[in-house]
Write a structure and sequence with these properties.
Blueprint lengths: L6 H13 L2 H8 L3 H15 L4 E4 L2 E4 L1 H29 L2 E6 L1 H18 L4 E6 L12 E4 L7 H6 L1 E11 L12 E5 L4 H10 L6 E6 L2 H9 L4 E5 H10 L9 E11 L6 H14 L1
Parallel strand pairs: 3-4, 3-5, 7-8, 7-9
Antiparallel strand pairs: 1-2, 5-10, 6-9, 6-10
Helix pairs in contact: 1-2, 1-3, 1-4, 2-3
Length: 283
């Protein structure tokens, strides 16, 4: 017999700990504030120890709560992943693809209708993650252009998809001060600016500016006139065509390429079909 508190109290605890608010937890769980508060009291009575302390109008975990939250969060993550795998198996063959959120939103998802037309038997499951996190998602294949932080074994089995070209982009009103203005930097691929300068011999926007974990946020910052962002051409073409952003120095081909990194040395047929399609569409 398991000596566990009711699952409803654990869900209330996890949601409250994650959001830092009983009110937001109640909204997420579609329960009343009072119901979630009662479940938290029930859990703390079952444990015989307080897990939260007051923090202004909200709550925060105490030492006991933080320790327990680490356990509960890990278990919930495992449950969610396991449930997802069961659903994937029930729905048929699935290919788990990890890539940056910006590449997924701005290029891959809009193109998927064509892939499903070609291969209706393969369903794509996406993990949209930052470059630093994407290798931890258990994906069948990872799409990335900067493999410098990847183990040598991963780089050796990576499949070339297409060349990449980067260019500094900014709002039209900002273009006149691009050389002396503010540089917008990506948290995880900041070396892109170094590569661009080395290949072009130019140095622009030398002043340190905002940094963001996703290229999409760098693009939004450029649109807002906060500075100059360095972006791959495919991800910004719509804004260039619309004239909402300009690329005063055009786009420069990098030595790196967009690559597909399969999880296993032996590439199975579904991955081969997907990477072949990517290479054709990107080309």
């Amino acid at each position: 017999m398991r000596t566990l508190p009711p699952m409803s109290t654990l869900r209330a605890f996890e949601a409250t700990a994650r959001t830092g608010s009983v009110t937001r937890a109640a909204e997420e769980l579609c329960r009343t504030h009072g119901a979630v508060s009662r479940q938290l009291r029930q859990l703390q009575e079952h444990a015989g120890v307080e897990l939260f302390e007051r923090d202004g109008t909200g709550v925060r975990l105490n030492d006991h709560g933080r320790a327990f939250h680490d356990v509960v969060r890990a278990v919930f993550d495992q449950l969610e992943q396991g449930y997802g795998r069961v659903l994937d198996q029930a729905r048929g063959p699935t290919l788990h693809v990890a890539c940056s959120a910006t590449f997924a939103m701005r290029w891959l998802v809009p193109q998927l209708a064509d892939f499903y037309r070609v291969r209706p038997d393969i369903r794509i499951r996406l993990s949209m993650t930052s470059a630093r996190e994407m290798r931890t998602e258990g994906a069948d294949v990872v799409i990335a252009w900067d493999l410098s932080s990847y183990p040598a074994a991963d780089r050796q089995r990576a499949v070339r998809l297409a060349p990449v070209s980067f260019g500094p982009v900014c709002a039209l009103a900002y273009a006149r001060k691009a050389t002396t203005g503010t540089r917008i930097t990506h948290d995880f691929t900041s070396s892109a600016w170094d590569q661009w300068e080395a290949r072009t011999g130019k140095r622009i926007a030398p002043n340190g500016g905002p940094t963001f974990p996703h290229t999409h946020l760098c693009i939004q910052a450029a649109l807002a006139g906060l500075g100059v962002a360095l972006v791959e051409q495919r991800l910004i073409q719509a804004e260039i065509d619309a004239g909402t952003l300009v690329a005063p120095y055009g786009f420069t081909a990098f030595e790196d390429n967009l690559m597909a990194v399969p999880a296993d040395r032996q590439i199975h047929a579904d991955i081969a079909a997907f990477t072949d399609w990517l290479r054709e569409r990107l080309g």
